[in-house]
Amino acid sequence: MNGSDLPEGDLPGGEDALDGYLAALAGRCGRAGFEAVVTAARDTCAMLSEGHPALLAGPEGEGFGPALQREYLSLLAVLMTGRTDLEVIAVPAPGGRRGWAVVEPSVAGDPEAADAVRARLTAGEAERAYVSDLLYAIYGIDS
After folding, report:
1. Summary count for the chain: helices (H), strands (E)
2. Are the CB atoms for 58 and 41 separated by under 8 Å?
3. How far is the C-alpha of 91 from the C-alpha of 11, rounded, in Å?
4. Residue 96 near residue 58 (C-beta atoms within 8 A)
5. What predicted TM-score, i.e. pTM, was given to this entire model?
6. Cα 108 versus chain centre, distance
7. Tens digit of each residue's pLDDT, the chain (143 residues)
């Protein structure tokens, strides 16, 4: 979403603004990446619209690496909010992996505010890891 070729703010043009966003997305990702991102976002939106929980993830493997994951989350944010000005920041995830959070531009541009978001999102990590280890030790359940 952080491209200068994208419309600013809300999508007042409706489909025209979304078409512009998708064209810019295709330019950034290439054909295969664009198809992977759009398919993952479409499937996620379908699950959510039917009232099913959806894990916000894309296809496994190297073909859906961090760059496409960011684009996927950006597209979901545009589809769900109608806004193109939101930004994606990296958030530490379990096992040394990286997750993502969609934030207001003012948060993304303020290192202290971005760190506060990251801290809130990762606050219970030690407790979750402890419970996961405990479940595995007692019941053999790998969460």
Report:
1. 5, 2
2. no
3. 27
4. no
5. 0.69
6. 14
7. 444 344 444 454 556 678 888 999 999 999 999 999 999 899 888 888 888 877 655 555 556 788 888 899 999 998 888 888 899 999 887 677 788 899 999 999 999 999 999 888 888 777 777 888 888 888 877 65
